[in-house]
Amino acid sequence: MCATYSKAPAVTEFQKEVFEGSKNNMIAQEAFVFPVSFAQQRLWFLDQLEPESSFYNIPAAVRLTGPLNMAALKGSLNEIVRRHESLRTAFEIMNGEPAQVVVPTLDLALPMIDLGELPESRREAELRHLVIEEGRRLFNLARSPLVRARLLRLRDKEHVLLLTMHHIISDDWSIGVFFQELTALYEAYSMGKPSPLPELKVQYADYTVWQREWLRGERLERQLLYWKKQLSGSLPVLELPSDRPRPARQTFRGASQSLVLPNRLTAQLKTLSQRERVTLFMTLLAAFQTLLSRYTGQEDILVGSPIANRKGIETEALIGFFLNTLVLRTDLSGDPTFIELLGQVREI
């Protein structure tokens, strides 16, 4: 079997924090209960506001070529579920607050739909339809698993694996971890070998317990004070000129646009960044905010940027919702030069 998948990002800076959280809090002798992380709490709240939205589904479709060992594939998927508590987690309200409820075991089903009998033209159309349909299917956060797998058979040696996870238990980095483990496990199981993966030292619940202990008191107050200052005053809506009005209700329908910069321009941007003692990200952020200001005529520009937020080396091998989104606010009033703007971005 051959598959193409995205890899996890590079290793983040290691910080010597120990995740202390004992697995001794049981519910009905069938599951463990833990506090939610701050990110999970935010996403759970958004799900309560928009319960019929699939916006926070994370779908992936992977085309598999070559002979397929179904037993090895299903075994690999369930070994990943066994390894990662987040994939056995649901969210229930306890004492008025959401909590993680982790079941000790869970069998992940792998239903298969055979498209091999369809004509070629209909087969690809049906494939696209099923991929979209699966990605939009809703999860109930109170019921695990919050991960689904489905296999589509196109031909004897061609399949498509559909994997969908809710964002509250996963993020982009986690998708890379998932498929790296799936590849290693499938190769081993197909040859009758045991799992080559070492046992995980910590679980996502350990991280949430540590985070709740770490971010409180004076440390929490400092963080709140900083963000209250950064987001003080009226927050403008970006009024981009468009060919249609904003809908009365947010639909979450959008798309992405990729842009490849020439090598020469990339080298020039890196040289500028080094000279001004900023990162390449800061330079590109300043350029993007300048572009938005020119298009809108606005001077107060806010851009959201995701960060991996995996602060300990122990978290790099975990599947879970670590990602955080930072609001980067820049004031372009007074017609600053680009160098002046870079200085301001550096201090955000």
Helix content: 25-40%
Q: What's the end-to-end separation, in Å? A: 47 Å
- Report the CATH topology name of the domain at 26-214: Chloramphenicol Acetyltransferase
Q: Roughly what fraction of the amino acids lie in strands?
A: 15-25%
What is the total tally of β strands? 10
The main β sheet shows up as:
4 strands, antiparallel
CATH class wording of the domain at 26-214: Alpha Beta
Secondary structure category: alpha+beta
In DSSP terms (H or I, runs of 4 or more residues), the helix count works out at 9
Could you tell me the radius of gyration in angstroms? 23 Å
The order of strands across the largest sheet is 1-2-5-4
**Name of the CATH homologous superfamily of the domain at 26-214:** Chloramphenicol acetyltransferase-like domain
Global mean pLDDT:
89
The helix/strand order is EEHEHEEEHEEHHHHHEEH
Dominant shape: globular
Poorly predicted regions: 2-29
Just name the CATH architecture of the domain at 26-214. Answer: 2-Layer Sandwich
Can you describe this structure?
The chain is an alpha+beta fold. The chain has a domain of 189 residues: Chloramphenicol acetyltransferase-like domain (Chloramphenicol Acetyltransferase, 2-Layer Sandwich), CATH 3.30.559.10. α2 crosses α4, α7 packs across α8 and α8 packs across α9.
